[in-house]
Structure formats: structure tokens, C-alpha cells
Amino acid sequence: MRKTISFRFDAADPSLFDESHNRRILSRIRLISILLLLVFPFYLYADFFMLGSVGDPTYRHASWAIHAAGPFLSLLFLLFYRRMNRTGLSARSAAVSFVIGLYVTLYLLLGMTGSLNSQLLTGNVDAYIIILLAVAVSLPISPLRFLFILLGTHTLFLIGLSAVSGDPFTLATKQINTTATVLIAFFISWTFYTLLKRDFFHTRRLKQQESDFRKLFAVNPYPLVLSRLADDRIVLTNEKASRFFGQPDDENRAFFLYPSEEEKERIVGELLERGRVPNRICELAVSPSLSRWVMIQYERIDYRGEPCVLAGFTDITELKEAEAELALHASTDAMTGVMNRGHGMALLQKDLEEAREAARELIVCFVDINDLKEVNDRYGHAEGDALIHMASQVLQRNLDEGDYLFRYGGDEFILVFHKGMPEAARLWESIRDDLQRLNQSRSKPFAVTVSHGLFRFQSGMKASAEELVAYADQEMYKNKTRYKRKASTGEDSRRAAGS
User: Fold this and answer.
1) Which numeric CATH code is attached to 332-496?
2) May I ask the CATH class of domain 221-320?
3) Nearest of 145, 18, 32 to residue 93 by alpha carbon
4) Each residue of 88-111: pLDDT tens digit?
5) 339-358 as b/e, with b when 16 or more CB fall inside 10 Å?
6) Are the C-beta atoms of 386 and 319 separated by less than 8 Å?
7) What are phi and psi of 314, to 5 degrees?
8) In CA terms, which of 52, 232, 254, 413 is 20 to 30 Å from 171?
9) How far, in Å, CA of 467 to CA of 454, rounded?
């Protein structure tokens, strides 16, 4: 039988708060003890000089005892505090909790006896009220413990007040007012204690979430960068991001997270509006000499109270290269290496629409290779393929920038010129001269000749790409007819190809 071992982390473990809160209360009692020692000389001066002429010896002796008890108890606490730190006594221990409860009780008792002593002389109990509120604010211990301490000390105070008060109406008023103060003190202490406890566990949960976030950030298999939204300052990067981008610049800014400054403005605007920008594909400069295709996920998050941008990267460079290669294969004729019919016709239709909108001319040239059947029959299909390839290479290398060539059929090609008819005719002359030089080299036992037809598209025409090709085909057919007529009369077929 297998045993399952589970690990549980309780972020709300009460003992953790008890230890932290007890340390806070101990440090405050230490501060109070130091203050009592510092003001002890003033109390001596008050007892022997300011109140030295008071005739009631009971009041004077009680005042001396109360004022001396404060420094004495303070010294005892400071010794305990020092010993606790030396021995490493846990703040959660029963001894520490007992000392805290004892000193809260003693402070209230000192306030109570001081007020009863003042009642004998001046008839006021202000000291008790002040101490009650001061203890509630500065030493907010567990509400239940504080309630029991209040019940005990206030009961003693009410009994003592009855013993030293003469007027029953004044006594009733003071009992009512001090009891109300006790209730207020309890409410203040309970409120402060609850807020401190809530803040402790909230802070602890935030720290735990930050720790978990950092762990997930570090082990994430993709490059991650966290930067401040206000100034692009990098806050966190994981190891993958460090390897992907290299070391950040001296300013430690995350400029490299965005394709461009314009794109950054759009992305930040969308983050502020929607909180996320998913799956942004772009080519990103990951170093001064290297660009990569990436898919970026931007998320707006708050980290340590500041709005930040979390950017996660997926390197899709290989995918983009494979996609480009597939697109090339899909748009390229395998035999000749020029564009195939589908891609070429789509591009021609696009150029046709743009030329119509911009009122530009466009020349479509239909080219047909001569004597392909004869070459196939006499020298074999391999040589026929060579004839097609050689003719396509001559056509391709004579094109100007912006013009293009695609294979329309077996021995048919389309040339598209972005120029007027005179310039297209001059370019065709250069193609004819190139064919003549090729034939003069005698690299093959056959001549490479072509027939062509030019058709000019002008603004206002309603023709489609297919119709333009058909018109150019008709012009080519006229040229082909002249070539065959000259070939049948024995004239040089190589010159006839460019006529």
C-alpha cells in the first residue's frame, strides 16, 4: 500500500502572527520603559518640590510609591528583554505572553492607583482615563485577554473609587464616564489588533505570491521580461530571456520589447485600455546584429504596487523560415525557378487594380518558345526541358526592377512591365540580343528562339488579368505566324524570333 505524502503551507498560521505581534508589543513596552526612566527625575522634582507642601501625607507617600514603581518595573522589563534576546527565547513562548499581559495589567493598575490618589487631593480621575486610552492604542493585545484584564482592573477601580469618593452623584458620574472609557478603550484595542492581524496576513500572502511568481518566472521555458510601464525600466528577466536578448544596456531599459517606437505607442495604448495584447507577431532585433521572428504576449500586471508590462516571447524564426520556403515552393515553378501561373496571375490582377486606380500604364507580354516539339522529338525531352529553362533565364535576367516574369504554361511565359510601350519595346530588344548571343555560343545543337506579343493596358479599360493575357496572346500569335512563315521559306529563325 503506497503512502501519499502531502505538503501544506498555511499562509494564515495564527502562530506566525502571534510571534510577529508579540515582538511588536515587546518593542513598544521597551520604548515605554525607557521613557519612564527618562521622566523619573521630573517626577522626583514634582513630588519633592512642586507637591512637597501638600499636607496630606497619605497622598505624598502614595505618589512617591507610584512614581518609583514605574522606573522599577521598567528596569525589570529591560533586563528581561535583554535576557530574552540573548537566550533566543521565542516570542511565541508562554513566558513572553505572560510578561506582555502582566505589564499591560501593571500599567492599568498604576493609572488606576494614581487616579484614586488624585481623587483624594483634587477629585479627578484623569490619569486612569489617559492610561486606558494610551494602552489601548499603543499595546493592542488579543481582545479576549485585554477584556479580562479590563474587567479585573476596572472592577478594582470602581471599588476603590467608591471608597475614596464622598458625594454619591459625583461618584456615579465618574463611574459612568470611566466605564464608558473602558468600553471605548476595548473597541480601540480590538480595532487596532484586527487591522494589524489582517495587514500581517495580507502582507504575508503578497510576499508568498511574489515568491511564487518569481519561481514561476524563473522556471518558465520561454523568455520573460517584466518592465515598469512608466519608464520601461527592467524589473525581472528569467534565464531564457537573458540568453535570448543578451545583457540589457547600461540604462537597463526594455526598449527591445517592442518592434518600433510607433508599435510601442500602440501596444502601450492597448495595454492601458484592455490590459493585454495577445499573440503579436513581428520581427524583433534581439541584438544589434541579429533579428528574430517572435510571437509576443503582452500583459499589464501590478508588481509591488507599480503598473508593469509582462512580455513573453516565443521564437518562431524557424517556423517563419519554413513558411517562407513553403510559400516560395507554392509560388515558384519547379523547372525554371520563376513564378508559377497561380502566383503570377494573382500578382498581375493586383497590379492591374492598382494601375487602374493610379491611372498608370501596364504592359503585358506573352512569350511562346519556338520549336519545342521539334527539339523534344529530335533530341529528347531532357533537351526540351533545357530549352525551356534557357529561355526563361534569358527573360528573367533582362527584367528591370519592379517588372516580373511567370510561367503561364508548358512553353509559355508572361512578362509584366511597369512602363510605357516604347520602354517595353526597347527592353524586348535587349532580350532578343541576349538570345542571339546565346545561340552564337553554340552551347546546344538547337537555337533558342521565342515569339512574343505586347499589349498595353491603359486607365479606363475594364479588362481583367485573364483578358489582358488573352489580348497579349493574340499579339504573340501574329508574331508566331510570321516566324513560321519565315522558317518555312528557309530564313534565319533566330532573327525571326525577335521580329
Assistant:
1) 3.30.70.270
2) alpha beta
3) 18
4) 888 888 999 999 999 999 999 999
5) bbbebbbebbeebbeebbee
6) no
7) -120, 120
8) 52
9) 13
pLDDT attached to residue 329: 77
C-alpha cell at 482: 510570321
Contacts (Cβ under 8 Å, ≥6 apart) of 130: 111
Q: What is the pLDDT of residues 457-489, one digit of tens each?
A: 987 788 899 999 999 999 999 998 888 888 776
3-state helix/strand/coil string of the chain: CCCCCCCCCCCCCHHHHHHHHHHHHHHHHHHHHHHHHHHHHHHHHHHHHHCCCCCCHHHHHHHHHHHHHHHHHHHHHHHHHHHHHHHCCCCCCHHHHHHHHHHHHHHHHHHHHHHHHHHHHCCCCHHHHHHHHHHHHHCCCCHHHHHHHHHHHHHHHHHHHHHHCCCHHHHHHHHHHHHHHHHHHHHHHHHHHHHHHHHHHHHHHHHHHHHHHHHHHHHCCCCEEEEECCCCEEEEECHHHHHHHCCCCCCCECHHHCCCHHHHHHHHHHHHHHCEEEEEEEEEEEECCEEEEEEEEEEEEEECCEEEEEEEEEECHHHHHHHHHHHHHHHECCCCCCECHHHHHHHHHHHHHHHHHHCCCEEEEEEEECCHHHHHHHHCHHHHHHHHHHHHHHHHHCCCCCCEEEECCCCEEEEEECCCHHHHHHHHHHHHHHHHHHHHCCCCCCCCCEEEEEEEECCCCCCCHHHHHHHHHHHHHHHHHHHHHHHHCCCCHHHHCCC
Exposed, middle or buried, 156 (CB in 10 Å: 0-12/13-18/19+)? middle
Q: What's the gap between Cα 14 and its chain centre?
A: 34
Report yes or no on whether pTM surpasses 0.85.
no
Whether 352 contacts 362, CB under 8 Å: yes
Burial class (CB in 10 A: 0-12, 13-18, 19+), 383: middle
One-letter amino acid identity for 74?
S
In terms of Cα–Cα distance, which of 399, 398, 372 is closest to 384? 372
Residue bearing cell 497561380: 342
